[in-house]
TrEMBL record:
UniProt-recorded name of the protein: Polysaccharide biosynthesis protein
Cellular localisation: Cell membrane
Region entry Disordered, spans: 438-465
Bilayer topology: Multi-pass membrane protein
Primary site of residence: membrane
InterPro entries: Bact_polysacc_biosynth/exp, LPS_length_determ_N
Originating organism: Streptomyces niphimycinicus
Residue ranges of the TM segments: 21-40, 230-249
Keywords from the named record: Cell membrane, Membrane, Transmembrane, Transmembrane helix
Family listed: Belongs to the CpsC/CapA family.
Domain annotation Polysaccharide chain length determinant N-terminal: ranges: 4-65
Amino acid sequence: MSDDTIRLVTIGRMLRRRWRLLTVLAVVGALVGYGTSLLFPPRYTTSASVLLPGQWEERELLTQAEIATSSVVVDRVAATLGWPGVGGGGLRDRVSAKAADGNIIKISGTADTPERARQLSDQVAQQFVTFAARLAGDNTDPDTAAGPEDLRKMVVQTNRRITDLSEAADPGKTVEGVQARTELAKLRTALQEAVKKLDEADPATSRGTMVVMGPAARPTGEAAPTRTQFIVAGALLFFLIAVIGHLAAARVSRRPRTGPEIAAALGSPLLGTVDVPGERRARRPEGRGPRARIRRLLDLDIRWELPTPRTSGDEASRQLRYRRVCARLRDQLPGPRGLLVVVPDGDEVARRAAGQLVAEAGSDASPTSSSRGYPMLRMVAVSVSQPVVPDRDTESGALVVLGAGSRTAEELADVAEACADAGHEVVGIVVAATVRARPARSAGPPRDAATPALTARGHAPGGSV
């Protein structure tokens, strides 16, 4: 197909002509999405926030977020909740934590009910605060070593003892006394510097205890993907697949559209292109059975990729095209001879064009003149799946009439082969194009161009047609 398949006007044309099929596919996709949502139970998510007082670097906050979802914390949460059949491994995929602005760790929990989601988030936050406090050494175990406060008290008592020892030393009478007071002064200075460094390094001076900022809120809606999202996603997916499939099929289509392409597929000269006015309610190919009804219901029997018909001239200009084709036939044939007008079955445009050609040739036929009369034409419809053309009788050639882009090159080759098998030489090809007719301006009555009846199936020599 040409580059017309990638234009927006082509997509708009497809939506107008195949909207029923696209709607049905979208509904099917929505049903598939609904069925998929039944395989995934609803999930609810809520969050609890933990405040970290003091100054924290970004990497430290990320470390705390990792600690909040560690196996130690999650296993303790599972043991505390005691949900049947749910252990630490099952909860690890339902818990997440991230560092937010303002030294806040946001802990999220997901469960199959809103109440369980709230319990899970609250319990993870509590266990995280407890575990983080133990890591920081914030506990009241009497068997542990003395804390920084006890150490400060011991340093104050030592300073007082140093002062007492310095006052008790012999002031300036002996060298030993002076050395003792000097050593005691150095020891006091070292202790003061040690206490100062301890105060600077003590996290308790700059960071307080982590605080859970209230219980988690009870979730009011399902977590993504929800059932509605599954349904919408299924409908959109099927709709896009249908659109892309139509465009891909049109792109790889091997249906010849132009006259030279059709002539090359049939191996015969192109005699001309005729116009067929489009009907407001186009007649669709006849067919019975469930499959035919479904095709008509979904507009599958209408070619969507064909461009919008152009506006043609008046009735006189259209008849002139038919007369020119008949004149070329008369000039090309050596003498008066009859021709079969072969029309692919189901090609309504070609059928109407062939009927007009037969009527035009019959209105000016002259069997006694070889230079002025048009050849006698008889129209037959052949199936493109198994084409059978009547054997030679009064006709000694075939004229193929078909709509532009209606058949593939393989189908046209089969029609040409069927004509040759019946002893008919394909003398030419006529391409029928659908146009939008203008109102007739002539005052005279229109020329009667009744469409002759198709050759009855099964009565033509050589088999059914």
